């Protein structure tokens, strides 16, 4: 098992040194991430400064792990609203790039539509740009979804940010495939829906799972699209790659005491309150709407 070497309370000069070393070892790096104004670095320095002055100001720097279709986007996005920190999904950044007419999009389409991982250089470039834009808007903290996905990405992240918590969402593989195949996106508002109606019996002592479909409102129905990588063949390839490349991250974060394992008990109405409980959080708004 590859291990992450943690730098103990690194000084900013050692961090910039590491960034330079890291990026000089990456080939064909786009301009944005070779910049000495690394958003990761700025974010790191800002967070540690504030935390030193007042621990209340400590940024949320969380990571969501989990197989394709498990619901990382759904729960990370809900938590980001609750905690007022940005939800940054590298899959969304890749899809935005795909939808643009940029020079990268053709190259990316071929990789993504086969269920393969995009190179670290491209992902770091997209992530770096996104963090910089957020920094300019005054964002602090983040909930990362889809990054890191490899041990190398985790090593890079570890060197520039202080991750507090890694939430690992878990669901049976047969359910994951059904959920990916049922996934639909409204091409106008961008919201995610799911047509799959899951009702699987328990096996080997684990309970059955019931998940109602998440149907779109009538104004979205005619605008629904399916992701090109949500075909059965590609989903199975993504699951294979997840098990091979991303699964080892669980052990890395488990050994650091940062991993929160969460078995989804069902759909959103059942899972959300239990996830909040596991995280020791309260959703006041939801409580009030339940009372009203
Ligand atoms: N951290 C990453 N490293 C490499 N490729 C990534 C990364 N994040 C996203 N991608 C690319 O974008 C695609 C879609 O990502 P995502 O929406 O997170 O998918 P999934 O539903 O499989 O979790 C991935 O299959 C991969 O090609």
TrEMBL record:
InterPro entries: Adenyl_kin_sub, Adenylat/UMP-CMP_kin, Adenylat_kinase_CS, P-loop_NTPase. It catalyses: AMP + ATP = 2 ADP. CDD domains: ADK. The keyword Cytoplasm does not apply. PROSITE patterns: ADENYLATE_KINASE. GO terms for molecular function: AMP kinase activity; ATP binding. Keywords: Kinase, Nucleotide-binding, Transferase. Its EC number is 2.7.4.3. Belongs to the adenylate kinase family. This is adenylate kinase. It comes from Cephalotus follicularis.
């Amino acid at each position: 098992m590859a291990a992450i070497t943690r730098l103990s309370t690194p000084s900013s000069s050692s961090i910039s040194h590491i960034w330079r070393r890291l990026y000089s070892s990456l080939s064909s790096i786009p301009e944005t991430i070779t910049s000495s104004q690394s958003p990761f670095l700025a974010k790191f320095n800002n967070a540690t400064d504030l935390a030193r002055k007042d621990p209340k100001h400590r940024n949320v720097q969380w990571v969501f792990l989990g197989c394709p279709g498990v619901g990382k986007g759904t729960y990370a996005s809900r938590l980001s609203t609750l905690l007022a920190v940005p939800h940054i999904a590298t899959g969304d950044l890749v899809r935005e790039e795909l939808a643009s007419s940029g020079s990268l999009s053709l190259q990316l389409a071929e990789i993504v539509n086969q269920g393969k991982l995009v190179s670290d250089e491209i992902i770091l470039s997209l992530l770096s740009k996104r963090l910089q834009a957020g920094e300019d808007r005054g964002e602090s903290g983040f909930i990362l979804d889809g990054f890191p996905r490899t041990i190398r990405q985790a090593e890079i992240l570890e060197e520039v940010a202080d991750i507090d918590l890694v939430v690992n969402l878990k669901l049976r593989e047969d359910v994951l495939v059904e959920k990916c195949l049922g996934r639909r996106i409204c091409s106008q508002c961008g919201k995610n829906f799911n047509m799959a109606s899951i009702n699987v019996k328990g096996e080997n002592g684990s309970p059955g799972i019931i998940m109602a479909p998440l149907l779109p409102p009538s104004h979205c129905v005619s605008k629904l699209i399916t992701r090109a990588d949500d075909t059965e063949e590609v989903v199975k390839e993504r699951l294979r790659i997840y098990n091979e490349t991303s699964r080892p991250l669980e052990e890395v974060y488990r050994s650091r005491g940062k991993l929160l394992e969460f078995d989804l008990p069902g759909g959103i109405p059942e899972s959300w309150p239990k996830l909040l409980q596991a995280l020791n959080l309260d959703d006041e708004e939801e409580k009030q709407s339940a009372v009203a």
